[in-house]
Amino acid sequence: MQLKPVPLQLNSRTGEIVGEIFESLKKCASMKLLKQVHAPIITSGLHHENYLSVKLLSLSTKVLANIDYARKIFDCSMGTANVFLWTAMITAYSRNQSQATVEAILIYKKMQRHMIEPNSYTLSSVLKACSILSAVQEGNQIHVHALKLGLNTNIYVQTTLMDMYAKFGCIEAAVHLFETSCERNLVMCNAMIMCYGKAGNVEAAREIFDKMTQRDSISWTSMISSYTNHGNMQAAQELFDQMCLRDVSCWNALIRGYAHSGDGERALLLFNEMKLENVEPNQVTMAVIISVCGCIGALEKGKQIHEYIKDCSGMEMNIYMFNALIDMYAKCGSLDDAYRVFCEMPYKDVVTYNAMILGFAKHGHAEDSLKLFSELLVGGLKPDAVTLLGILTACSHAGLLGMGNEWFSCMTRDYKIEPSVDHYACMVDLLGRAGFIEEAYQLIKTMKLEPHAGVWGALLRACKTCCNIEIGEIAARKLFIVEPENPANYVLLSNIYARSNRWDDVAKVRHWMSKRGIAKASGYSWIEVDKLVHKFLAGDTSHPQYRHIHATLKNLSLQLILDYGIIGIG
């Protein structure tokens, strides 16, 4: 559609011109058309009219999703901008939900310097931005400003404040606002369910949910998420089953819950049920399901979902989906596919690099990990704690002790990143793999942080490899305190004793396990066949094709003996 510029004659009345402009703006379905209408507004001098600028700005962001053009409109009109135009720009950034959201707070501060008094909508929008960015200090300051202006009791401001404090995890502040509110609306109740759920007070969240006379999808989703966040999948499923109308958010909450609780198979089944009920998955759904495929090693299913996304005309790949794909392919061992996705990405953040660096690292490609790290720095991105963990993992898996020591030393010096317990665990693993057991133990003793099971576990595994009984016993005793129910720690210590022919000590460890009711966890493996993941436990005979599988293994074993004299699986 070619839109003709609005004819602006000197003898035309301004009201008529503005009317024509508004009619033309209604037809704008692209940036090209918007610019055609905008041009005569500028040439006629009407670009300083706030109501026109607000309309142009809103159209740029709400309909055409062009925040940069909206900012140009705002900057050109800033000298004469009223509270409505300032608010429109702040609102546009607060809706953006990206790194650009910080601009909402910066514009609010600039608005104060221009002595423009905000209204309730301004405050609601900038508080939403604080919530998205977890900007606690700025949120508190704006709350104080609202109090000074007497707008703190406004229902919109109060609701946004509650939602903000709920997302910050500031329970007392959110509860105080809720209890002192004259009017408790739906959004307030939803915010409190979310707030209590985040704090672990699921009973209080459920009490509010049960008392609500009106509920929307957010109410149900928040309550389901409260249960899933604390591992109560049964209650979450029961609540989900009570729903008459389930939108994509509710499905996402339950799918994410099963994924985080380690039940990837159930998460995949739910995803299939969701499609059967004609609920279209969104970008959040896809990112979670892709991650599930990575966790359970379902490479073919992951590839199938990747193709499904490509075929969905209405779904654009966002950075979370790209990052999830890289992580999934890397976890499934398909590094070529992971790197292909990495190279296809139009924009990469530090999480993208972290996923690829860790992928290369865990598969022993230290050189590729280090190359990507250099690329990250050249691209102007700032490495974080996860990036450095990936580099240390790369050094550990490749046995690069000297390089690992150097990277560990430069974390604080060059990148101002304090080593976490996970970084120490990686260094203990690196030293242990190289046979430096004493040095690994000394490193643990210098830690300012409390070592977790990962640190002592790395040391115990190294002691088993090098048969170091003395330090192995120290590591095992620590693990028996930190995670007393984990059978692997007892088995590792028992194996260390067995390698040294200390059979009495082996018997003691077995006795401890028996006395505490700890049984060795059954080992299992899985394989994906025809898009189904089959799980096999040691000694398990429950698989429906068990007899056929076992017969095939026997035949293979016999063939090995006949052909090569190798004794296989009997």
TrEMBL record:
An individual GO BP term: RNA modification
Residue stretches of each PPR repeat: 82-118, 185-219, 247-281, 318-348, 349-383
GO molecular function, one term: RNA binding
Keywords: Repeat
PROSITE patterns membership: PPR
Listed Pfam families: E_motif (PF20431), PPR (PF01535), PPR_1 (PF12854), PPR_2 (PF13041)
Keyword Repeat: yes
Domain of life: Eukaryota
Tagged with keyword Repeat: yes
InterPro entries listed in its UniProt record: E_motif, PPR_At4g14850-like_plant, PPR_rpt, TPR-like_helical_dom_sf
PANTHER family: PENTATRICOPEPTIDE REPEAT-CONTAINING PROTEIN
Record's protein name: Pentatricopeptide repeat-containing protein At2g13600-like isoform X1
GN (gene name): LOC104588748
